[in-house]
């Protein structure tokens, strides 16, 4: 059973995992280096635990102690009970859901390890917006994608905003980072995947015509909001595919486009 510790000093060193959560640059450097990430809200905390992540501690406002009682009883990590005002002082924002947990990261698999047994994967290049990362992971989980590969400059899926937007779906879809981009796409091709680059370019084949759901192994490549996939990534692809647009709309944002494309990739998939 965890120990519940009432804390009334925002500078208490035991709260160090939770300081400055709104400082994106600081947290982006600090969290991977220290091997932690922050789960926010009851559902996300429970999903992180269900996925096997070890809890370092919890930070709860008083009304959430009873709600999280079963977790408190099961986990030996300390629980820090604080007032909403103190939580805001420590984190830098109003913690609406009243419950935060510091979780221990686990080592990522290699790309080659991740591809074993996978048939439908996402490959993201330079998607560095945490909201987009979270939305894409949520769609990938909901629509049955097997895994995600990230270029070195993609945002952290375990950053608090990514986790929150995904509603914990980042814990459901395994992912790995490619160390060299786009060279390491050769690992994907050698594993038997056809690389489909999603682009609004007119010369791209419509995704219906490409019929990705009929292919044995498909890797769908997505680029960052605005610029899309780089020239190097497009050259590395086996085929360019696009989502047909109507009413003069030139493209969808990457989160919406990903959801449409994932459905096309997984529709009719045989188990």
From TrEMBL:
The tRNA/rRNA methyltransferase SpoU type domain, residue ranges? 121-263
* Keyword vocabulary terms for this entry: Methyltransferase, Transferase
InterPro entries in the record: Alpha/beta_knot_MTases (IPR029028), Ribosomal_eL30-like_sf (IPR029064), rRNA_Methyltransferase (IPR051259), SpoU_MeTrfase (IPR001537), tRNA_m1G_MTases_N (IPR029026)
Gene3D superfamilies, per the entry: 3.30.1330.30, 3.40.1280.10
Give the signal peptide, or none.
none
Q: Which CDD domains match?
A: SpoU-like_rRNA-MTase
Q: Which GO terms describe its biological process?
A: methylation
Superkingdom of the organism of origin? Bacteria
Alphabetized GO MF terms = methyltransferase activity
Q: What is this protein called?
A: RNA methyltransferase
């Amino acid at each position: 059973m965890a120990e519940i510790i009432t804390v009334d000093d925002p500078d208490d060193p035991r709260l160090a995992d939770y300081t400055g959560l709104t400082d994106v640059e600081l947290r982006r450097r600090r969290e991977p280096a220290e091997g932690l990430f922050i789960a926010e809200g009851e559902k996300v905390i429970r999903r992180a635990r269900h996925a096997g992540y070890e809890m370092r501690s919890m930070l709860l406002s008083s009304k959430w102690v009873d709600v999280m009682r079963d977790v408190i009883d099961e986990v030996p990590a300390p629980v820090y009970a604080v007032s909403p005002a103190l939580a805001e002082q420590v984190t830098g924002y109003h913690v609406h859901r009243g419950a935060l947990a510091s979780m221990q990261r686990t080592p990522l698999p290699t790309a080659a390890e991740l591809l074993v047994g996978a048939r439908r994967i996402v490959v993201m290049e330079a998607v560095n917006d945490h909201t987009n990362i979270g939305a894409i992971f949520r769609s990938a989980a909901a629509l049955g994608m097997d895994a995600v590969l990230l270029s070195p400059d993609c945002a952290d899926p375990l950053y608090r905003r990514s986790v929150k937007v995904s509603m914990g779906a980042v814990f459901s879809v395994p992912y790995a980072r490619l160390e060299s981009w786009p060279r390491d796409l050769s690992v994907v091709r050698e594993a038997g995947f056809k690389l489909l680059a999603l682009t609004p370019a007119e010369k791209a084949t419509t995704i219906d015509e490409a019929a990705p759901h009929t292919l044995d192994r498909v890797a769908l490549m997505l680029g960052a909001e605005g610029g899309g996939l780089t020239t190097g990534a497009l050259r590395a692809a086996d085929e360019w595919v696009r989502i047909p647009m109507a009413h003069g709309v030139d493209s969808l944002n990457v989160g919406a486009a990903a959801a449409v494309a994932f459905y096309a990739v997984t529709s009719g998939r045989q188990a």
